[in-house]
Amino acid sequence: MDRNVVGMILGGLVNVAIALLVAPFFQGILRRVTARVIQSRQGPPLMQPYFDIFKLLGKEDIESGETPGMQRFATYLLLATVLAAICLVPLGFPAPMSGSGDVVLLVYLITFSGICTLLAGAAAGSTYSLVGTSREMMMMIALDPIFAITLVVGALNAKSLRLESVLNGSVYASSGFPAAGVILLGVMLLAFQAYVGRVPFDISEAETEIMEGPLIEYSGPKLAMFKYAQAVKLVLYAALFVALFVPWGSSLPFPIAFLIFWAKVLVLVLLSTVLAATHARYRIDQALRYYATFLAVSLVAVVLASIGH
Amino acid sequence: MSILSKLLETQICLGAGRATMPYPFQPRTAPATFRGRPIFDGKKCIGCAGCANNCPAREILVFDPCQEIRVLKYLGRRCTYCGRCADLCPEKAITMSGEFENGTNAIGDISQTIELFMSTCQRCGRCFDEPSEGKRNPLEKLKMKGYRFDDLKNERWIFRSQAYLEGQPVVDDIAIDLKD
Amino acid sequence: MLKNLCQKMFGRSLWVYHANSGGCNGCDIEVVNCLTPYYDVERFGIKLVGSPRHADVMLCQGPANRSTAAALKRAYEAMPNPKLVFAIGSCACGGGIWFDSYAVLGPAEKVVPVNYYVPGCPPRPEAIIWGVAVAAGLVDKKTAPVTFKQVELPIPRYHPEDLKGKGELVVYEKAPRPGF
């Protein structure tokens, strides 16, 4: 029993290590593909986000803002929550820690990471960060139900709340035409950009309109952690999407399944890049209307799933 | 509507290729009429200070440490590269070169200084251009015609400059009847 | 060890904050031109950020005006160490042609300590990229102060001992007198 627990924790750490190593690389691919393909210029080198993070770690930490203690707490908590969420997700091999949590825990952790951003923005207390916090709150209210509904449909179809069975393409029902699954595939594809905070929907943070929103009063190492958390969120949501909707090929032996998984994630990231580079940012009310329609559509999908489709 | 137009947009961008110039690694020249850093040629300068008078940023400073030396100092700090000094210079000693690569960490690097020797007349103290070997400037010619009385011993009118050039005795080349 | 790595990475990813303290916006446009695909300064890792707290480099543009000097100083103090300040354009390097206006306090270095200067009015985007490359150590700077001296001090003054007679002609011979 002890060895099992220790093994699980080590496996979780493997997940964390992979996520930490790979996440800035995907951001680098994002920036480079945007530059080379869409904007006809030579972009930054692929390792640029690593350079950025190291440089930020070496800068002086200016504690500005209203409540520095809460700011520190919120930063560390954000990175910790996102890394804890990624321990539960299969990254090309079955997640070692998936026995210690279920679907509800996953939804909780993802919502909690959003709350940490809100805490960070509210703790800073400057005008811009409060505006960014309110927008982030609105986006969270619109988005988290959609994600929860997807997992609920998966749980309904798999008839259990365990992560191994839900995160395995269970959205497609086993009998008949998987109507709910296809509807949810469409919804999640269109909503993916908002989860990872990329351009049509990066309303809450990292934009020049409100000077990076909740992040405005953070400098140096704390900013490095925020940027890292954003990069890891990209990997997290991409991995979840792949595990929920396109899991085929994950039962092959270890190296091949690993490579296939990361190839799928790469395709998803490239799609997200192209979307981000060719669109303009939505206003908050336009985005909320957009998501309200998605919420209605996913409720239809839940009804369909509960009657067996 | 939107997806198709975005795909079309992506295709157009792909077709454009890469537009970036590899600038610091490959040199790039400015167009011919570009006004870059002004280069002051000390050999042609006569020290008239017309450029200093006309500079809109008062960037060219003139001062005379003593009667014979004039120092013209161009500090590059406020220069807007307008070219008025170059337009004005009577000797065309200022050229607006095409140099735009002026970034530096000490602003004193852009300064140019010219120190000129201004010959002054012994009598009135005003500056004149130094007579060089080959040039026959008006003052030299005046000397030939007898304007200067350095030749105090002889105190004769010296009329013919040619004799001077050839080194022949010039006194009494014209018979002037002085005894009367 | 981590500190060394962080210091080495500083030159590879510079985040830039643009602070215009009263200029005409010519240099603003040239700075933003540098971020376009043609000149593309992002290949060096440079990114434009909106808050001085996230920035490493402040690009000062425009002279330090009476009304904006305090804001410029606050933006400088809000930047975390290590930081650099660039003065872009003639106005920020030396006050420009507005140096004696009632509203202008002087160049940007009256308010914040400046590390690198890029003169020009406005400087070409290539000139700005050259300045950034000099700061990052990619190229060597191309400017150095120039002095042209026609005569070295001490200069010979008019002394009777310097006059030499050559037959009929009195010649003023210029000879540098050592130890004068």
SSE run of chain C: HEHEEEHEHEEHEEE
CATH class of chain C: Alpha Beta
Reported by name, the CATH topology of chain C is Rossmann fold
Note the quaternary state here: heterotrimer
Supply the helix-strand structural class of chain C: alpha/beta
In DSSP terms (H or I, runs of 4 or more residues), the helix count of chain C works out at: 5
Q: Count the beta strands of chain C.
A: 10
CATH architecture of chain C: 3-Layer(aba) Sandwich
From the N-terminal CA to the C-terminal CA of chain C, the straight-line distance is 60 Å
Mean pLDDT of chain C: 82
Structural class by helix and strand composition of chain A: mainly alpha
Distance between the termini of chain A: 40 Å
Keywords:
heterotrimer, B: 180 residues, alpha+beta, Alpha-Beta Plaits, 2 domains, two-stranded antiparallel ribbon, 5 helices, 7 strands, rod-shaped, C: 180 residues, alpha/beta, Rossmann fold, five-stranded parallel sheet, two-stranded antiparallel sheet, disordered C terminus
Can you describe this structure in just a few lines?
By secondary structure, chain A is mostly helical. Chain A has ten helices and no strands. In chain A, helix 5 (127-158) packs antiparallel against helix 7.
What does this structure look like?
The complex is a heterotrimer of chains A (309), B (180) and C (180). Chain A has 309 residues and is mostly helical. Chain A has one domain. Chain A contains 10 helices and no strands. The mean pLDDT of chain A is 84. Chain B is 21% helix and 16% strand. Chain B folds into 2 domains: 34-130, 2-Layer Sandwich (Alpha-Beta Plaits), CATH 3.30.70; 133-180, no CATH class. Chain B has 180 residues and is of the alpha+beta class. With 180 residues, chain C is α/β, with parallel strands linked by helices. Chain C contains 5 helices and 10 strands; from the N terminus they run αβαβββαβαββαβββ. In chain C, β9 (163-166) and β10 form a beta hairpin. The termini of chain C are far apart. In chain C, 50% of the residues are buried. Chains B and C meet through β5 of B and α4, β7, α5 and β8 of C. β5 of chain B pairs parallel with β8 (146-149) of chain C, so a sheet runs across the interface.
